[in-house]
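Q: Convert this sequence to structure tokens.
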Amino acid sequence: MFEDTIIAVSTPLGYGGLGVVRLSGPRALGISLEIFQPRTHRRKIPQRQPILGHLIDPGTREAFEEAMLTYYPGPRSYTTEDVVEISAHGSPVLLEEVVRLGLEAGARHAHPGEFTLRAFLGGRIDILQAEAVNDLIRAASLNQAKISCRQLDGSLSQRVSELRRRIIHILSQIEAGIEFPDEGLRTSPQVIARGLQRLLDTVSRLIESYDLGKTFREGIVLAVTGRTNSGKSTLFNRLLGHDRSIVTPFPGTTRDYIREQMKIKDAVFTLIDTAGMDNAAQPIEKEGIRRGRELAARADGILLLLDASRLENEDDLALIRKCRDKRTILLWNKTDLPRKIRNERIEEAAEGLPQLEISALQGTNLPLLKEKIHSLFVPDRSGGDEVILHLRQKLVLEEIRKAFESALSVLEQGHSEEVLAEEIRPVLPLIGQLTGEIRADDVLKDIFGRFCVGK
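A:
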């Protein structure tokens, strides 16, 4: 397929017990044997069986490392080409030397994602599976890894393939009625409508799964906000399990935002500690408050702290009203101190926001808070259906959904079968975009450009 042979380190940068250099292309084995000498003489290198030997400098024939070589002949390899993997000790110096000698022997350094790109162009995987490869490598949670593993095995591709089959079946029913009107092949509008509605439901479920997929892939951003000295930084540190924000008895300690990740069960959260939302005299404090408001507006959810040990004021009530349109948990903090805040005014402003009494300092109700965060912000996956992880996939599916909605509308309005068929036909190339059968260079560049070198 490709005339050149590529080489790259496939294991992460840094020191480790093991490092792997991968080659792919027509000269993968030949180049490898210029720098790898089997320990025992072999007339033929075995397939898919590691052999022990030494890495050597072809110029001096001097050995510099003991290593293992595994040969995977195409097309039964990751890239569908001849592939060789050289496993050595995980020293960056050694691995870089292997790559350097491979380049001198005629290989070319691989671009990011080029091994997987060759697997795609060779027809071994589609774009959905290629995206799953990178998702599996970069999985932020075990749930994402499980989803990506299934999609690498083809679960999402099979779902899309079934979708295509059902669309073609409906189109063939419509077109048979158009082409052979006197042969009794016409299908009733009711049957067509039921088929289209089932397709619409399938696509809608996939689109709706994106919120859960985004949760597993990117995490949920939660802004910890409230008035100055309400205990935001203490809560931030408690949720993280270590001291990240500076905590003092003095108001205004946090003047900028601090961002850290944490996990609750199977979900990843990005927690942001923001500056206190009070009127500020200093320009730096004003800027911190402005940034905090922007972050709160963009966040997926808010943990809004009230200091229960002091009387509420109009700033508290204004903050609560601003947060009512977002997913917000209202937290009555400092319950270890004498209570002064008045529930009536807060309840009136909160209008049904979920609430919890805590003491960030003492850790009171923090396990309950984590449960509440997970239940409120992590979408339910009780159905165990397919989950999509990428915005690209969601946008294409939304175009497909629009086409189905338009077709159902045409059917309800009593238009001709020819018009109905024209509404459905554009779905097939959209599915081709989803799986990569219809290739767009900018899409391929974006997808594979996110991969690491060596994969």
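Residues 155-179 form the longest helix (25 residues).
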